[in-house]
Write a sequence for this structure.
DNA sequence: TCTGGGGTCCTAGGACCC
DNA sequence: TCTGGGGTCCTAGGACCC
């Protein structure tokens, strides 16, 4: 989906179309004051000039999404709000409306599944779709089906998306970036040299800032450079697994299937404080936040029907270093008090000499509530109950 | 006044088991 | 004088993605 969170806000405030708008940062709806001030008219008639600007923004946080006009100024996802404010002070800031974003996410995915049922979820605004067995999925290299999906999503949501069609997920993901926003791009196997190799290695899904920096140090800049490297040399520098993977992706090879179903591995809640907190001096405040996080995780587990047996905490110090501790229980739980107790034990094992900026609680090793795995009580088998197998007999 | 929140997967050492 | 070889699970940290 194109600039998803921002586009969702533009549905509500169409008068902001064409303007630099960023979503992010706030814990509360900073446009509430504006809405109160103009409560006598519809949202779409609030003058654009009345909205809060990035230059007036105070506080912590990062940009979730920037509209394309804002991107012209170099503002983008994951950028700190303060830095963004220097680049584009006149941008309008709005908070994310998660409920509305989730609703529209479900809506666009439902539209796709109606047309092409083999869909892999890739977060709130992205999916992989397998065109292979969709009737007409091969027409014009997939362009006809891609157009139908685009049109159907727009009719259902008034939102635009960009689609890349290619022989595998790796190339499709890259192709989807070629023609944004509201674009379609078809990449064939033969296009590797001309369209993929000139790209920076960072464009590969799976090469992040660290791998990029190391590749640049080794004078590997483009995907073509990467493809030209001896696989053995890549293995020597990045290890067996990453080295081989890098070689394969540089040659456009990816055999991962489109996975339509998956079970969650963990659920967590975390929060960055408005100001850094001290474990001793701000004990009461931290304690309340800690308990609240445990209750929210427990609530998430219950709502989604899961229990977990590994309880963990995460904290981030004022110098941005992160520490985690976890503890695995004998039994599964979704109980806030139990989670709070174990998380409290974890907290005792971590240094608390620095101020904290973030606290998080995680539950892992999940099982479906009520499943045999979740309810089985681990009882050691008594010897006389043990039926010997072939090798033990006699 | 830098740097969110919710995830997955990988690595690596150590405990423990057969 | 020589001290295995598998395997799984747990824990901590980190890279990466949306």
């Amino acid at each position: 989906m194109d600039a998803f969170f921002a586009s969702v806000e533009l549905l509500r405030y169409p008068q902001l179309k064409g303007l630099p708008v960023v979503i992010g940062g706030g814990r509360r709806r900073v446009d509430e004051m504006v809405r109160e001030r103009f409560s006598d008219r519809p949202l779409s008639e609030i003058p654009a000039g009345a909205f809060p600007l990035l230059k007036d923004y105070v506080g912590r946080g990062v940009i979730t999404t920037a509209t394309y006009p804002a991107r012209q100024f170099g503002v983008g996802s994951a950028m700190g709000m303060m830095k963004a404010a220097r680049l584009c002070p006149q941008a309008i800031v709005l908070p994310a409306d998660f409920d509305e974003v989730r609703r529209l996410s479900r809506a666009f995915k439902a539209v796709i599944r109606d047309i092409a049922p083999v869909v892999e979820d890739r977060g709130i605004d992205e999916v992989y779709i397998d065109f292979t067995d969709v009737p007409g999925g091969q027409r014009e290299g997939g362009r006809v089906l891609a157009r139908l999906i685009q049109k159907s999503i727009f009719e259902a949501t008034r939102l635009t998306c960009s689609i890349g069609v290619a022989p595998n997920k790796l190339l499709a993901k890259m192709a989807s970036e070629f023609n944004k926003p509201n674009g379609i791009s078809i990449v064939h196997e033969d296009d590797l040299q001309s369209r993929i190799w000139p790209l920076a290695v960072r464009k590969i899904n799976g090469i992040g800032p660290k791998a990029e920096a190391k590749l640049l140090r080794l004078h590997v800049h483009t995907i073509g450079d990467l493809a030209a490297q001896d696989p053995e040399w890549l293995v020597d520098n990045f290890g067996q697994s990453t080295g081989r993977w890098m070689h394969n992706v540089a040659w456009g090879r990816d055999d991962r299937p489109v996975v339509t179903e998956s079970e969650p591995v963990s659920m967590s809640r975390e929060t960055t404080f408005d100001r850094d907190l001290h474990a001793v001096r701000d004990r009461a405040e931290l304690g309340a936040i800690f308990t609240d996080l445990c209750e929210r995780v427990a609530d998430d587990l219950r709502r989604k029907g899961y229990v977990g047996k590994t309880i963990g905490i995460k904290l981030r110090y004022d110098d941005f270093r992160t520490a985690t501790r976890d503890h695995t229980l004998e039994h599964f739980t979704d109980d806030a008090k139990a989670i709070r107790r174990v998380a409290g034990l974890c907290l005792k094992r971590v240094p608390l000499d620095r101020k904290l900026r973030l606290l998080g609680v995680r539950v892992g090793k999940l099982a479906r509530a009520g499943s045999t795995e979740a309810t089985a009580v681990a009882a050691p088998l008594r010897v006389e109950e043990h039926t010997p197998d072939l090798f033990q007999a006699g």
Summary: Residues 4-96 of chain A form a domain with the MutS, DNA mismatch repair protein, domain I fold (CATH 3.40.1170.60). Chain A has 15 helices and eleven strands. Chain A has four domains: 4-96, 100-187, 199-250, 266-375. Residues 4, 77, 122-126, 205-211, 310, 312, 322-328 of chain A lie near DNA strand C (CB under 10 Å from a C1').
